[in-house]
Amino acid sequence: MLLKPSRPLALLLVCAVALPVAGCARNRTRADTAYVARDVNTLYGLAKSRLDRGDYQQAAKLFDEVERQHPYSVWARRAQLMSAFSYYMAQTYPDAISSAQRFLTIHPGNKDAPYANYLIAMSYYNQIADVTRDQKITGQAGDAFNELIRRYPESRYAADARLKLDLINDQLGGKEMEVGRYYQRAGNWLASVNRFREVVDKYQTTTHAPEALMRLTESYLALGLPDEAVKSAAVLGRNYPGTVWYERAYALVRRHVPNAPQSAA
């Protein structure tokens, strides 16, 4: 799932316009990253010009050169973050994460630390795959956004992080549902119960909760646990009374547990 950079990510690019570009070299080739000693303004200006032209990969390498050739200059710190941003724009997300993490290791208290954390989280987020595939990166994105909110709850990025977390939780809940349905089709009812319970317990605010309760009703009935099936249907009825999932659960309970209390079903 590749997403266009969200608005906060453009802020760093806008800020970069104000940086000195004196002596900026033009019409260079991709051999620019070969070690050629340059003064910091020339090298940073060359990196910035590549960024402006949309040559993000080369821009990132040139920003890395600023740090390599002038590690103690005032521009080295900015170049680290611009390198991470350029790798992000190039969709080279592992390198974006690595560059941003290096910035945080060296400058943990810098005013741009929230942005570096946000770049890391967004780099994971943009690699999220559909629910039929492994969701390890989805979990890493969630961890990164949670860390951002924990460390910088009042930052300009926290609100977007909270929104992204809602989408991530829905994705993770969807993966649990997919696996649970697979176990149902295979007749592995105990395993399906464990998956649907996970959705109800951990992702109850997502769109998957009503179906999970209905699937629990099905699985409990298949396991010969009518009391548990009735309880699941009752929770579904209290929280999602107008859904098709409740109608299906209600019909199942009335068919298989005819003596169940009307209110419970």
Describe the protein in words.
Helices cover about 70% and strands about 0% of the residues. The chain is an all-alpha fold and about 260 residues long. The radius of gyration is 26 Å and the shape is elongated. The N terminus is likely disordered.
Summarize this structure briefly.
Helix 2 (40-52) packs antiparallel against helix 3, helix 6 runs antiparallel to helix 7 and helix 11 (226-239) packs antiparallel against helix 12.
Approximately how much helix is present in the residues?
Answer: 55-70%
Structural class: mainly alpha
Radius of gyration: 26 Å
Span between termini: 40 Å
Sketch the topology as an H/E string, one letter per element: HHHHHHHHHHHH
The total of beta strands comes to: 0
Main sheet specs: none
Strand content: under 5%
Mean model confidence by pLDDT? 87
What form results from the Cα inertia axes? elongated
Count of separate DSSP helical elements: 12
List keywords for this structure.
265 residues; mainly alpha; disordered N terminus
